[in-house]
Specification:
It is a single chain. The chain has helices at about 25-30, 65-70; strands at about 5, 15-20, 40-45, 50-55, 60-65, 70-75. The protein is of the alpha+beta class and about 80 residues long. The chain has one domain (about 5-75): Roll (SH3 type barrels). The chain has a 6-stranded antiparallel β-sheet. Strand 3 and strand 4 form a beta hairpin.
Length: about 80
Amino acid sequence: MVSTLDQLPVGSSATVSSLTFTGGKRRRMLDLGFVPGAAVSALQASPWGDPVAYGVSGAVIALRREDAARIAISGK
């Protein structure tokens, strides 16, 4: 079973293993630092649980859960 970023609990860290985005959206995620092998941590969720703030490549990026579900992780 493959874990995805949206399943990562706040306060936990993992490693990005792959992305299922295509085209411009894929390029945008790669530019933001969500590249295979990058360490990522779930920092904080909004009061309603969406979006979630993730730490990756020295930056804090807020992603909607539907986007985070398209980023596979390992080492949860």
